[in-house]
Design brief:
11-stranded mixed beta sheet, two-stranded antiparallel sheet
């Protein structure tokens, strides 16, 4: 639980971004979709939705794993591992770093997830229910290890001097993975890190939210007076991190600097967010990054589109930033709730927003809930000279995570 300012002697920067999402694959498509305020909401097709009144979601469509997964048989991998592995390949290509150079260095692979390979588990359970244990597919069973979300990246990129981990702090896990990688680079435990999150739409999670009466019938409307809940989504966001010294030595493009992060677990309630715990996490992140609240230009909110989240999160933001907080946007209005990939995809959104100098919109917006009292940049992106952006991630059980990103301008923050 970092609370002290990060060691300024080893700065950490983002030089590669890999995206598999419902609104685009690759950072260029993803950034263009965010700027345009696109979504790809449609009826869920990856599992049988018979019997559900509401069936919309944010699936990844037209995904061709063979384009990105070349060294291993993608048929060995579950849906989420295919996403994470493809996103890692995209991040490496985007960074300009060769696969050979990465293989010669010390590398950390850290991937967050909520469900792991629950999509495959759903199928195994269905097989057992309909045909007994003997009908269960051994090949399908071999796909279900959540550890494969990280280890498949190492296998695909042929890395041996590598540490892999899958972090399962649910919907805040992407930020946890980024924080873990930030520390590894900052303290010299790794030369490069591939980090982020991945999840696939699955029946288990959709049903859980449906029974909580949290699934929206049409679209996700964060902070809107008439919001009706979340839409489940899927995808992967993987970032390549390295030290500033490494990036400048090889002439790499720098999207943003990782300034610091904060983690907290208030353990207040199994599913309900806790205002004090969320505020505490934001305070820890600001302290770790050495950033004052007034220096933050934009907050990428967890922003699920449920009343409990929206009201609690905006109240905690006012507790931390005062009655005139920075703009607060929710990319889930476009992406749906991608679970363990959510804060990782949002982190990539923050990075391109800093680099390309715009604020993504909160779409599907009609009327801001007066209890939220924020500028959520409704429906249309705006040009903005962003210097520091905060990325929020909350999860069931009170697992909270916040990461601060800054524009790299050759100077330390505050100079």
């Amino acid at each position: 639980m970092p609370s002290q300012p990060a060691d300024p002697g080893r700065r950490v920067v983002i030089t590669g971004l890999g995206v598999v999402s419902s609104i685009g694959t690759g950072v260029a498509e993803f950034s263009a979709a965010l700027r345009a305020g696109r979504s790809n909401v449609r009826p869920i097709s990856v599992f049988d939705t018979t019997g559900f009144e509401h069936v919309n979601g944010c699936e990844v469509t037209d995904f061709e794993p063979e384009r990105w997964i070349r060294q291993i048989d993608f048929e060995e991998l579950g849906r989420a591992s295919r996403f994470s592995t493809a996103a890692a390949r995209l991040a490496l290509a985007d960074s300009g770093l060769s696969q050979e150079a990465l293989a010669e260095a010390r590398c950390l692979i850290s991937v967050g997830s909520t469900d792991g390979e629950s999509h495959e588990l759903d199928q195994l359970v269905s097989m057992e229910l309909h045909g007994g244990p003997e009908s269960m597919s051994p090949r399908l069973a071999r796909r279900i290890s959540a550890g494969r979300l990280a280890t498949s990246i190492a296998r695909e990129l042929e890395l041996s001097n590598v540490e892999t981990s899958t972090i399962v702090t649910a919907c805040s896990a992407g930020n946890y993975a980024i924080g873990n990688s930030f520390d590894a680079i900052r303290f010299g435990d790794a030369d490069y890190a591939l980090c982020g999150g991945a999840d696939a739409v699955c029946r288990k999670t959709f049903t859980s939210f449906y029974r909580l009466r949290s699934i929206a019938p049409d679209c996700c409307r964060p902070f809107d007076r008439n919001r009706m809940g979340i839409l489940t989504g899927e995808g992967a966001g993987i970032l390549l991190l390295e030290s500033l010294e490494s990036a400048t030595a090889r002439g790499a493009r720098i999207y943003a600097e990782v300034l610091g992060y904060g983690l907290s677990c208030d353990a207040h309630h199994p599913v309900a967010p806790h205002q004090g715990g969320i505020a505490r996490c934001m305070e820890l992140a600001l302290a770790n990054a050495g950033v004052k609240p007034g220096e933050v230009d934009l907050i990428s909110a967890h922003g699920t589109g449920t009343k409990a989240n929206d009201l609690t999160e905006t109240a905690a933001i006012r507790d931390t930033f005062g009655e005139r907080p920075p703009r607060v946007v929710s990319m889930k209005s476009m992406l749906g709730h991608t679970m363990g990939a959510a804060s990782a995809l949002a982190a990539i959104g923050c990075s391109v927003a800093i680099t390309d100098r715009f604020i993504p919109p909160t779409i599907n917006h009609v009327e801001t809930d007066p209890e939220c009292a924020i500028d959520c940049v409704p429906n249309t992106s705006v040009e903005a000279d962003l210097r520091i952006v905060q990325n929020n991630g909350w999860a069931f059980g009170g697992n909270n995570s916040v990461v601060l990103f800054g524009r790299y301008d050759g100077q330390a923050v505050g100079v």
